[in-house]
From TrEMBL:
Organism: Clostridium bovifaecis
Protein name: Phosphoglycerate mutase
Pfam entry (one): His_Phos_1
Domain of life: Bacteria
InterPro entries recorded: His_Pase_superF_clade-1, His_PPase_superfam
Amino acid sequence: MKIGLVRHFKVNLKREPFMTSDEYNKYMTKYDEAGIIENEVVIDKEWDKCYCSSLSRAIITAKTIYHGEIIITDKLVEIPFSARINTKIKLPYHLWAILNRIAWTRNHISQPEARKVTLQRINDILDVILKEKDSNILIVSHAGTLYEIERILLRKGFKGNKFLKARNGKLYEFENINL
């Protein structure tokens, strides 16, 4: 069984390097609503089916790169983040990302979705996908979600192109010859 992971195409939204907590939260909302910068990558050939996040940037990406059956699901949406602290002091965007990721990993109440809830929804959809043992499945999702999927696949015996943060529009392939 092969599983291909693709992060949606690049989002067409300018980001300020420093933001207050309100600015960060507004940016995250705009990010979910923004359009994408499409490219011409097509990866139809070896995939039997595609599972895709229900966010528009993932759906557009999936329809651009794959022309077979696409199953759209909320279980593959991005891990939602919001500012861990409330401040009018402008902090670097990357610091916000780190603080919020730490808060999420610790199931902090400041985050819209607890880590255990996120991992449960991801495991639920992977259970469905892994039952299709004779199929090669493409998954189009988001950086944080794909990172967690990668970790789960590696624990389940898959081997493939590892990544820390998936690049937009790039295919990462994982295979488990025992399935």
